[in-house]
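Rotation project, supervised by the postdoc (A.L.). Task for the rotation student: set up a whole-complex structure prediction and record inputs and outputs verbatim in this book. Inputs entered:
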Amino acid sequence: MTVLILTGEEDVTADMVVAHLNASSVPVVRLDPADLTAGAALSGEYVHGTFRGHLSSGERLVSVEAIRAVWVRRPGVPAARAAQPSAWLTQETAQALYGMLRDCGARWMNDPDAARRARYKPWQLRLAQRCGLPVPATLITTFPQAAREFAERFPDLVVKPVSGAHPQEPPRAVPTSRVAPGTDFAAVAYGPTLLQRRIAKRADVRLTAVGGTLLAARKETAADADPDQVDVRFAPPGAPWRPAEVPRAVARSVHAYLRRARLAYGAFDFAEDADGTWWFLECNQSGQFGFVEVDTGQPIARTIAEWLAGTARPGTPVAES
Amino acid sequence: MQPFALNYARPAVEREAATPYVYDAGLQLNVLLDGRIAAFDHALLRELGTTTSTAGSKTHFDD
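Outputs recorded:
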């Protein structure tokens, strides 16, 4: 039984998992959908009430029925590297590949439908609330007046993209940024704007959930840190990530979140305040984990490999396709 | 007419350094020039930042 990993060649984080699977003699096929139809190929036959499918990548060939788990890690755009790429060919290829895989009986990390839904940040906030996680007061609006009133109620705010995506053409980054007092909110009318009460944090927390295993890491905020430097991704390196205990109440809520979201993997970001409360910021259903493992030595890659191989410890919740 | 959030945008920083490893299709892993598996070299990964939570990815924003 084979583990299928959908990702690009340059994904060295996936390598960390592949190495563990290799060490356990678990067959792996690594396929980038971008390589269909140049370097990768597929075929599926629906005859006499049965299905037989095959995928190939490089020199490897696997029957679809032999796939025990699919890890949707960093797949390229289907057929992006085809001889004559086009939007139509991408759509055709996506339909063929994912349509064929959807009912193959494998476990997914993560199920594509669940993953698509889980990317909606507003949906994440509501689910986190329902699961009992503290969520900073948040407003998403195109009404400038609503933004002004929110700023009166919560004077210390940050703004961040609703989608988490960053604009291209030209490529720009939109870090979570502090909103200065007296800011003019008129431009809120030109696009949905996410405003959130700033948490005066003493640490950032990244909690990586793999099946039923929770691995948390904490990065302390320097005492002299600039309070305008909100987004840890854009901050100077500072303190390393260190392993952290997950408070029992948070663990309960995170398990509930994963169950309701039907996610086998999630990377949760929290801001820890001076009281030690972990405020939910977001859950990235395919969030990076390599940098945490590199700093903390936590066995995240091994845990993912074990989940994919089906050798995770008993009782681990599993998201079936 | 620019959306409010874009008032806080900054130019994306492109990674300039070439990665010192190449993909080995046989192993299905990236290997260093001396043949070692790149993923085992944590010091290198830390230095390159290739496993970090990055912002501004064109194709993936689940970081």
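Student's summary: The first strand of chain A starts at residue 2 and ends at 7.
Supervisor addendum: Chain A touches chain B through 60 residues (CB under 8 Å).
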